[in-house]
Amino acid sequence: MLTNDKEIRDLKHDIATEVCRLAWAGNLTAEAREMIVFRVSPGPKPEYRCCVYKEREIVRERIRLAAGRNADVTNDTTNVVQVIRPACDDCPTSTYSVTDSCRFCLGKACLNSCRFGAIGKGERGMRIDPEKCRECGLCAKACPYGAIIHLERPCKKVCPADAISWDEYGFCNIDDSKCIHCGHCIHTCPFGAIGSKIFLVPVIEAIKAGKRVIAMCAPASEGQFGKEIGMAALRAALKKVGFADMVEVGLGGDMTALYEAKEWIEAKKEGRKMTTSCCPAFISMLRHQFPKLYEENKSATVSPMVAVSRYLKSLDPDCVTVFIGPCIAKKGETLNASIVDNADYAITFGEMTSLLESRGVELTPVAEDYQESSIHGKRFASSGGVGSAVLEAMKELGEDPSGVSLLRCAGGAECKKALVMLKAGRLQEDFIEGMICPGGCVGGPSSRKAEPELNKARAELLAKADGRQILENLKRYPMDRFSMYRDGHLDGAE
Q1: Per-residue model confidence as pLDDT tens for the chain (494 residues)
Q2: In whole angstroms, what is the distance from residue 328 CA to residue 184 CA?
Q3: d(CA 226, CA 214)
């Protein structure tokens, strides 16, 4: 989901980098943070806001988010997605508005079409009373000049969970009980008024404390930084920063594909429909909006991120695992205390580049190769990749997947439609592959490149992967030492 909010992304990157530098130096004091504020907004004239005082307060809240704290010190929310209230500005509270194209015509078709008394005469044209408007849209359809337009807040428009509203002052509110942490609202806000907590400071502190901190790079990583920067280059750069090692999460894709294949085989025999378990935003949508389906139809297998974290912690229980990818919802998944041996932290690609820059490390091509995943695990990042990998695993297990019907959903609307059909008993397919981001994980909110450029670079990198199969690859790993199920039970355990 590469967007054109370059100035906002640059500001966020700059602040995160400075916070990292302070963390490395052990100097994340109030005075040092305030120096960042005045460096970003020196005054006396504002750079991008109405006044320098508002501008500085926005920077302060961004610094708090960059340090893993709540943006508003008075807010006790645990949500990773948060509103920077001083930045929330100038969005219309009424979604239907009369423009200057209104001719104040004699017919008054708009007025006559309104059933709620929301339209009246203004000084030079018709006007809509936002207190009475019920947003039915009949006035816009009736106007012969098309003078009434539908304005919807960008954040609310893209939210697939209907979690966004606003208070009497027009400030955006996020309903924590509905939010699925997809992060779509973050980059669609033209004022940069929505952000997410950043967990770089505890990662730095763990490295400084001498802990074995291991990075886990998402399958979507390949292609994000061009065709020359593959998993080996990412691994080399992260080691320079201080990570003990890096493991590609495509390996977890292989693990998840195998165990979901076992579930699908049994579900098919029982005539039971199932959903995939990889996308945390999709799982949150299930839990919030379709609780019965969450209990009865969700795969019990953990996500690839959790699978790799459990594998690493089975080898070293004291290691710290850090997921790196394009996903905001992964941050929410790491905070789920019910998941045993979960990843400790999740950071985005943009946050990773801030971490690298804070230590003067650049991403450069390397000569050596690195691969721990089959090509099927690597393709988990794209829409259809999860389902295809599971079908491949079924085939490798000796089952014929030809009779299995799969519905691939990418995007919140597609996912919700499929789940509504499943709830109503009208879903024709056997299984649902659910990904909240359009195009899959590669289209996540923190994607680094536009889709055509990303896909081209990604194709070149994936073409270099060897042809190992899923089961063949997993024979290299101690799968009996950790659980692949959400409740933590081992295969064969009662």
Answers
A1: 556 678 899 999 999 999 999 999 999 999 999 999 999 999 999 888 889 999 999 999 999 999 999 999 888 899 999 999 999 976 766 688 899 999 999 999 999 999 999 999 988 889 998 888 888 999 999 999 999 998 888 999 999 999 999 887 888 999 999 999 999 999 899 899 999 999 999 999 999 999 999 999 999 999 999 999 999 999 999 999 999 999 999 999 999 999 999 999 999 999 999 999 999 999 999 999 999 999 999 999 999 999 999 999 999 999 999 999 999 999 999 999 999 999 999 999 999 999 999 999 999 999 989 999 999 999 999 999 999 999 999 999 999 998 899 999 999 999 999 999 999 999 999 999 999 999 999 999 999 888 889 999 999 999 999 999 999 999 999 999 999 999 888 775 43
A2: 9
A3: 23
